[in-house]
Amino acid sequence: MPDQIVTRFAPSPTGFLHIGGARTALFNWLFARGHGGKFLLRIEDTDRERSTPEATAAIHQGMNWLGLNYDGDVISQFNRADHHSAIARHLLDTGKAYKCFSTQKEIQDFREQARAEGKSTLFRSPWRNANFTSHPDTPFVIRIKAPKEGTTLIRDRVQGDVTIQNEQLDDMVLLRSDGTPVYMLAVVVDDHDMGVTHVIRGDDHLNNAARQMMIYEAMGWSVPVWAHIPLIHGSDGKKMSKRHGALGTQEYQFLGYPAAGMRNYLTRLGWSHGDDEFFSDTQARDWFNLDGIGKSPARFDAKKLENLCGQHIAASEDAALLQELRDFMTLTGAPTVSEHKTVLLRDAMYCLKAHAKTFLELIEKAEFILKDRPLNYDAKAAKHLNTTSCSMLEELTPQLQNVSWTREGLEASLSAYADAREIKFGKIAGPIRTALAGRSITPSVYDMMLVLGRDETVARLQDAAGYQSDASNT
Hints:
single chain, mainly alpha, three-stranded parallel sheet, three-stranded antiparallel sheet, 12 strands, 47% helix, elongated
């Protein structure tokens, strides 16, 4: 293994950072960080028509949300085009590449004829060994001289040894007729100049490795360690797409998934450490290695993602979780929470975070804190406020003025009231829940009373005691 591991993530800014790209970035980040190495970011923005500043910003936002910090400055592939071109001309000058004057029509005609005759459509340029004195004064491309015989061996840490017959390799174009370098050349030059030791990317690039190795060998450069990871599939076993609910990382962020849960899930998506499912960032960095990556495509499972996110929310320290929640509310444009309610949210985290899978669910459970009096009662909750229940709430409020404001004290007081009325506790729990939260899905009534405090609890019960639902008046 090299003295220092260097990995990179090299997305094209032509759209959002999709979930597969995020996982590739995460694998590179984990491998570098776990080995004390460097993780670099390169934006492959050579496609000027499709590359946009908005897409670049989305890449940065997705990586920032996932906590994938990179080392050094961001590299723009487009800004290095002159250097890429210089490498192509160096290969030309050293006889390892040549000028090809074949036109697109000539190449197309060749392929059509080859198909008609049932032959290989791999184009063999007639200019490969032509004397420069025969070169016409017409536009040309620069092609690398591919090996014609033997094999190319790709030693891949995930896929194993992959052998390519050299007769299947064409003389790849390095420089277009307008003088611009092709992607395959730019990738190799950039990876070499950035000192990349391990190329961890999707297995749809596996065949590219053999073609890129031609450039490494022609330049006398060390070939990096290859690790081509299987793509992510949907639940039906087909390549992940929008029909499977595939979203950009930004959309998962807006849906309220915690970054730690997403990191855990994406790490586990195609990589394993025994039977471990739930683990911390520290464990992921310590455990992650290329040997744990499977060869088969991973299947995206939204329920498993939610489950892991719920576990991370439940395991979070209250102060850290509160800060994440506040950041999420700011991101989504939620109203600013007062300092008093922020304190209440902090105090309530112990009962809010249980069973919440996203920040949206956390906010839903915290509605009883975020709402102001007088509360609006939703239709389902309002059904609990009839003449009888409102009368019970009115009777309860004096008793709660002097009760010990502890769980034990509240449980004893409410149980004694139910016994005196010869009713089950559920008969008063529903009205109390409605009075305190205005909705049916909440933490327990005891938790809400403890968080809100005596004065706010009594005030909300008094408000509800004076309420008469439509159902109770008919």
